[in-house]
Structures
1.
Amino acid sequence: MNLNFEDFQKSNVNLKELNNIRVKNFKKFATQGFPTKKQEHWKYTDLKNIIYNNFKNLQIFKNEEISKYDKKLLIKDFEHNKIILLNGRFIESDFSFEDKKKITIKSLKNAFNDKKDFEKIKEYFTDDQNSMISLNHALVSDGIILEIDENYSFTEPLIIYNFFDKASDNKIINNKVFITLGNKSRLSLVDFYKCENNIKYFNNTIHNYTINKNAILKKFNINATLDNSYNYNSTKVKSYSDSIFENFLLSLGPNLIKNEIHCNLLENYSSCFINGVMFLNGDQHHELKTNVNHKYENCKSSQIIKSALLDESSGTYQGKIYVDKSAQKTNGYQLSKALILSEKSEFNSKPELEIYADDVKCSHGSTTGNIDENSVFYLMSRGLSKDKANKMIVEGFLNEAIETITEPNIKLLITRLFNERISETKL
Amino acid sequence: MLEINNLSATIDGKKILKNFDLEIKPGEVHAIMGPNGSGKSTLANVLSGRKGYEIDGKVYYEGKDLLEIPIEERAQKGIFLAFQYPTEIPGVNTNNFLKTSLNTVRKFRGLKELDSLEFLKLVKEKSKNLKIQEKILSRQLNVGFSGGEKKKNEILQMTILEPKLVILDETDSGLDIDALRIVSDGVNSLRNKNRSFLIITHYQRLLDYIKPDFVHVLVNGKIVKTGSSDLAQELEKDGYEGVEAAR
């Protein structure tokens, strides 16, 4: 694999400070290479191997290749604001349901040449053991900076469309998203992924969210349609007092997703809820890694992850709850349940609790099993075919996670996408 | 309706049913009584198609070889088994399940499928007749249901699906008097000249409410005695050992 960094540098001349960051981080990446299963956090996703096996000659995406997105891909019958990213590049935004004065949106590409803007995000270009982060710092080409004013609640959800077209074929795309919610503001955000048929790309993206006092961010990752893409997403969240972060992940579509969510509960009474569904077939490989850090007293966190695996697919959930010694009265909960629906599918689960405070309530559970034959028999004895009986049981099983969604409209959307996917699958 | 000839069933190397014979004609109600381990539930399992048994002999349902018919088609063709232990299925809504089941059966019978409104109307009417609280239908299938609720749910399914042959597998076990009455009212309301019942039970109690045409005593995998409903009273008095001793 030979990523041509010099070529990339020539076409991305930014602030000197950023250029130095890029050089430093690319060096770091070049020494480490893509992560392998020898690294603890990548034990279940041997990225180096996956890239080697699936990309002959992966190239850095060139930002100047501009194309138009297909408007037919937008979600219909669902009122929403939108931000369009095409091949990681910020194309346009539409906040027609909102008071635009309360919202600031900037392209990251522009911020890279603006000293004042860059100053605000500079701190996020930190050194990291994870070479994918170094790679992202080195090669980030675009993305967005979104800021919501204090006391402003969005009327309708915001969908960030992550579209990919043929220009992204065989490319690695690195982008970043920064979102800051001011005190007492509210936003429901859908991160929606869709690519053109038969396009194979690698998307390496980092999201940074800051949720200030009493603010509520509800975030939904939707990867619903089967495609040929490879994705690594690292989300870092800073939660301040009395704030709420909810994240639901619908993980159905791409060949590979590794989602990492690091949530830092930094002040009193902040909370974090991460729930999700994985429904995989073929040789899909999806991993979710959550890292909830209770850094302060009285915070609450919960994760409910439900997975069902067919064919030769594999899924992984690594969930860590860390409780700092000062984080008394922490309430933490974690549950992962997986159904293995074929002999060759697998699910790996690694729950971790690291607790240094003495007055906390933390529990976790993890089960992996087969479909209950008695349940199948019961449904079949009422006339349902085996396929239908299996579907009903799997749907019911996964629904327990979908039921946790607190936004009715988005719940309907997710249920619809999930039903479409499960109905086209043979069980 | 149902003809069982020389049926044997073996599980884990153990022969449970031994050369079992039984004939049920349309409209008849047969009760099978027997002590623990006599093969009552095995009979219900074999008829409904549960896997795991080595089977010998013949079973004809409406003249067709029942053992060759897949499980779901048995249901579609009108066989209904009320389970001794109805399975709890988390996440599956009772109403949705029931609607899917009914429409599958209706489709098979060449009837129009019911839409949600028509279905709800039907369920409302049937559950009212059975004095079943409708709210259990919006819950997950059998999850957290009391023993009585589970059995009532089975009976409701039976009245909605309108089968031709009903097999009740110890439906009376664990029921209080009120629930027992609801269950037997459900059965009695469905009795007609075309529909047959096979009631498997441990105690004579249920037969006070549902008068069978025939009572069979099953001991050790075989019917050892057949009589009218009076036989049930005798059994209650003398026990299964009494019947055996009389032989």
2.
Amino acid sequence: MTAALSPTDRPRLRRGVRTGTDPLSDRSILLFPEGILFLNETAAAVIHHCDGNRTVADVVHAIGAVYDGVACEDVMSLVQDLLGQRLMVVDRG
Amino acid sequence: MDRPLGLLAELTYRCPLHCPYCSNPVAVADSAELALPEWLRVLEQARELGVLQLHLSGGEPLARPDLTPLVAAARGLGLYVNLVTSGVGLDEPRASELAQAGLDHVQLSFQDADRAAADETAGARVFGHKMAAAAAIKALGLPLTINVVLHRANIGRIEAIADLAATLGADRLELAHTQYYGWALLNRSALLPTREQVRAAEQAVAQARTVHGDTLEIVYVVADYYEPYPKPCMHGWGRRHIIIAPDGRALPCPAAAQIVGLGIDNVRDRSLGEIWQHSAAFTRFRGERWMSEPCRNCPRRTIDFGGCRCQAFALTGDAARADPVCQLSPDRHLIDAALHSAGLPHSPLRLRSNPRVI
């Protein structure tokens, strides 16, 4: 199954998963075939940067520049969680 | 009151297939299908209520020539648009048109991995059409889930079904045991697998997950008759989902129309918002006030919501009883009697007959 996440991995949303906006709360959401995930602001920003081109390290750098106190581990753990839920995939090499 | 998240739009009961486990009603009243402008109004009202996902189903939704503008409008409203189809009629131009309109995801049904057995279950020679539809979907890069309803005749071929889904490049495979409503309940004695078959199926699913790993997600929906507790049907009555029947009746569950005296409203007469809040059909079993024992004080009532109202009605004649699947239900013997006859000689399958086109 999925190997441990490396800072050089390039994560992106899995096919069939996309972001959207909840019309009632204006919150960012993830939409996928059988479910919905409501996102907080930081998670939405992380996902926005996970475009399959940036590495995890790039995403951490970009997020750190905007949000104070977001550690590398926070980004890694969110991406790992989304990989576990099969909402993201990573490209390697 | 919660807000609805999903809308299941049953665009038509027309279908080129005759599957003996079809969840559509056994008897369909002659009434006109909602026209495109009516559907567009429903979608706008659904979005205002907070609906985020739209499932276009039927019958066969491709039987509607106005499917593409419907998809485009739904996507324009920001809805996640999922097409639930047999694949018959989904050739490359049609698939391309739907993809351009913004279709997010396709759920394509297969009856079996074996062509002859699949066509026999479907009551039509459609296996080839499905293979072509899968290729068209993949060629466009659309995400694809293969749906297979499991029953006694195909449950032994789970590994072959998973191999087929992988060969077709599917992202997901959903293996769902037959749910016994409508046509499936009529055909239950022929469809219900044995306990040994269910056990073997669980092993086959585990094996297929090992073989296909990350490339194919396999979702397995258990056989509720063989479970000790009921399924959390619809995640609670009138809590997350709205179903609109082809003629505009608004239901909390696809099987709810069978419940006599439910007080069903129609989107032709009331707005979706009024229906969600006030329609008797939605308020009747919302929350916990309708519950009697053994549900009323059961710690599991927040997990399974008392199970399925339609199953309670279909098997006991009273939709307010606990789901007979529950081992705490006084009606569990009804399920056990059905299980006892699984595998025994049975009457022939009654293939779904199709409604008149209006």
3.
Amino acid sequence: MFTPLKYSLVLSVLTLLLLIASPLIIFTYEFLQNPDCLKVDVKSVEYVNNETIKAQVAQVNVFYCSIIPLKDFKLVIGEDEIIFEEISRGNTTKTITLKVYDNEVKGIEFKVAGIYGFKLHYR
Amino acid sequence: MDSSYIIGEITLITRILKNIISGIINGVLFYLIFIVILPLIVFRLTNMSITPVNPLVAVYILGFFLALGVISSSVKPFIGIVFDVILSLIGLLFTLSIVSSGEYGTVINLYGYSVEVVFDFKPLLLVVIGFGILFVILNMFSRIVKPED
């Protein structure tokens, strides 16, 4: 009585697993092919140093090579957190204001296709 | 001794043996599904390295599954269903603990820097666990509809 239902469930499990896992498989494959698939470059454009404000204007460029988009991309630079809604293939540039003169990227967080979360933090 | 009594005894022993064997098969099947196959699917799909399990712990878990399997097949079907559900839910709990509840963290060396990496694969795990629960419910219903002796 339940055999057809069980078979259809197995089929739907396999289909769903394939659909959910495919972005991760493609992402991993492309990263293994090209380890420099994701590159973050922070360049200072202007320094602001007066009596009230001490900050720097910087340009962040993110190069990404995979066809799988990265959602909720967050960069931790010094004390600041810079959020990009989506990073797709190619270069994405953003001009930001940083509270400190530190250009070093201390952490990266993103979600592969909005599903799998990755957090990388330099110690 | 009455021959019908001997036949009755033999039938009883055969039935007990049949129940024990079906219980052992049941326990091994549950062990394979929850401790071996489900974690393996998750590890393969997420490219995680498999956490080695202490062989003694593996034997304990297998023994636990076998015991519950044998109890489930030896008692009356409607009571057996309860043990089957307990077996499945504990199996899912083991699966969750093996795959560390959907988060995998490690420290790697990247370009000379020590980097802490955390990988979150909860959505994938939810699909696997969700369908696991569906199968448990389906098995329970199939036993209620067609109870065995």
4.
Amino acid sequence: MPELGQAALVLCLGLSLYAAGAGALAARRRERRLAVSAGNALLASFAAAAVASTVLAAALLRHDFGFTYVADHTSRKLPTIYTLSAFWGGQEGSLLLWLLILTGYAAGAVYLNRRAAPDVVSWVVPILGGVGAFFSFLLVAVASPFATQTPPADGLGLNPSLQNPYMLAHPPFLYLGYVGLTVPFAFAMGSLLARRSDERWIVATRRWTLAAWTFLGIGQLLGAHWAYVEVGWGGYFAWDPVENAALMPWLAATAFLHSVMVQEKKGMLKVWNMLLVTLAFCLALFGTFLTRSGILNSIHSFTESSIGPWFLGFIAAVAAASIALVLSRLTLLRSETRLESPVSREASFLYNNLLLVALSLTVLWGVVYPILSEALTGEARVVGPPYYNFFLRAFGLPLLLLMGLGPLLAWRRSSAKGLRRSFVWPAVVAVVTGVALLAAGAGSSIPGLVAYSFSAFVVATIVEEFVRGTSARRATAGEPWAAAFASLVARNRRRYGGYVVHGAIVLVAVGIAGSSAYDTVRQARLRPGQSLAVGAYMLRYKGWTEHRAQNAIEDRALFEVRRGGRRVGTLAPGKNFYPAEQQTSSEMAIRSDWRRAEDLDLIVQRFNPGDRSVQLKALVKPLVNLIWIAGVVFLAGSLIALWPDAREQRRLALRYREAGAVLRA
Amino acid sequence: MAIAACLAVFLLYTSIAGGGRPALKPSELAGHTGEEVTLTGRVAKQLRGTPGAARFRLHDIKGEGAVVVVYRDALSDQFKVGRDISVDGRLKSGVFVGKPGTMVTKCPSKYTDKKTT
Amino acid sequence: MTWLTLAAGAALAMLAVVFLARPFLREPSPAEDRIDGLDPAAQRRLELAEQRDRALAALKELEFDHRTGKVSDEDYRALVGSLRRSAARALRALEPPELPREPYPPPGELDPPQPPEIPEPYPPPDEADPPTQPRIPEPYPEQSFGRDGGRALDAGRSSR
């Protein structure tokens, strides 16, 4: 069986190489049948990757410990769903998942666009084939999931803290995002290679980019939520290199999503977009390199395998080739309009891009700093959360404000009068909110207060946009409010879906501000009967119990929670000890107070058997649940923006037909 | 363009001005007495500590250096002999005093992360 | 197990080869074997079509922004003229009569009326001309970018 898997991988490699080589030849010589053949190779590579994946999945489900990979990552007692998730739990399997998604996306993108722009697609095929060949090569030669051994009696099992639904979904979502960025990159480069100067590639990849970006965002939120509820330190993001690895491409992709809108509407920023899509793709590759190479001191560590240099080489090659291509095609990328005013919507998009890219690059700088400083000075130096938090505030707060300002500005230029009219109400809301919060004691953190005020501003502008749009529609179409609202959104899905997504980002910003700028942390060692005050809560330690479950010994410390003198409940944080895996996991207790919008988190750091005391860490985190709720809003907004619009499709089809650009079926 | 240039200058400045903390292995600690650094290594042996202060010997992950570390905070659940950790702190009189709340324990298996505090 | 694996592997490989050869098997000697690309004329037309769509979309967006109060009356008056002119220019540039005239745009509606045949070297109309030449009616305040907006201009019925 493992031989079949390995054979499928070799086949995938061969097919990818064919797609790359024959595809490039066909594109260059403009030979149709060869190009179709290369496209078929791409489709077939997906089938081959699927076969390899099925072999691995079957081995996992069968508990076939003859597969080294299966033995290393599962055990007999592991629940089935986690056995299956072990597919992506290790280096080799996660690479296979990447390959599967990559070939799947490649097949889909090429198949769906095969008639739309055959000349561009003829170049997209070799690019996607090349990337597929790289990953197939890694799987065949460097990190194969199909290594075999004499089967042990039982496997090593999965770390219990990973046996969590959020951790189950986190990697697939991230990969759907990372890999998804390959498609717009391939189409952008393909468009240049085909010497096209039009925006077809943007139209073709718009939804892919949006979908990939959404997956990447949701994947990060899932990881953050897991970190919050499972890891037991009361936080959700630590600026660890591996967390940054997902953040950097996401920021670049956010910038790209916005600047591509400017290119579509104004014909500007063409070179910038080419470079930006390359940056996003390279950061995605770099991100996965970071998590695998063991090159950085991170609390996530895969294995320090030899895979690192391969990735670095590939990223360098991709970056160099892309930049060379862009430089050689500069004449195709001339702007059609100029920026007329620094106070215009184009300008605000530009500022947004600069801030996002700057933030992404500062994070990148912080991540590679240890490597660079060691190379240059012989001594590795690391930067910590203060560095990242400083830049998050420096760039993030203006970005927050810009989310509100941008929609208020008109294209080309905004006059003072027009601004005043749109500005007034949201600005008033922001100032009033700021003053009210200041009175309520939020002055303890200036960045937090600023974040809250800016958020209020943005929410006010979003509401204003929806209200004005709906009433305009009512006035012209005579529809009642609800119908007007619905048709407004339906006819402008990208705009209003985008506003909903902005709303989600505001929720995240408020959640982060609340839970990091206004939180309370207390630590103490408590003997039975002793109490600890944290925030407005009083915690009384009653004692600790031990319970033997099927595969774990569960120690729980009982706490009585009082607020304002009244008893509001009991919490039982503690630890689980798993004898089979010899692992301990922290089981924190979280009490979410929805009315007051805060979480009370209790973490037992240590049980002291001598006097039955516990080392407790208690945190009060205001507004933290907004971050998770924001995820749902984010998804909703993206879906609205993604939703196919028949009207728009017709218009586009007409455009291409007219230009004689769509050819025989 | 101008903004990008400013940013680039700022970043270069922070790097040249020596931003960040040195990241060292036990064998490299020698010349850094008193300086705040991030120490990374593998737990070799747990030593007798006092209540509230754990004491253990930390080795280079790949190499020969070793140092005794004192850490006045709770150890993470993942802490064990043979695991890799990193902790901020200073070398004082030949003993590395770890800063509470800064120890990060790496778990040997893939995909895990365990932070203390 | 091994011979089954071998057979499966071989079968897969063969399937793949057949699939790759399929285009050549289906058309052993085709009439022509070129990838349909865009010749420079078609490329130019596409760019012009994109410019036209861009100009019309900008016009509609300006209308919408004006209607929702984001753009004041003076700003609107200042901007709409040049936008209409660029839209007209783009429409005119796409004029060549040999192009198949699909329902878009309905003739006589969005088409600028043909200027009289003027022999060179009469200078073409420029920016400063009052925008009476190309008659572009008030774009429908519909916020869709679809062609229905054009069709609906006929009867003024509200489109869906």
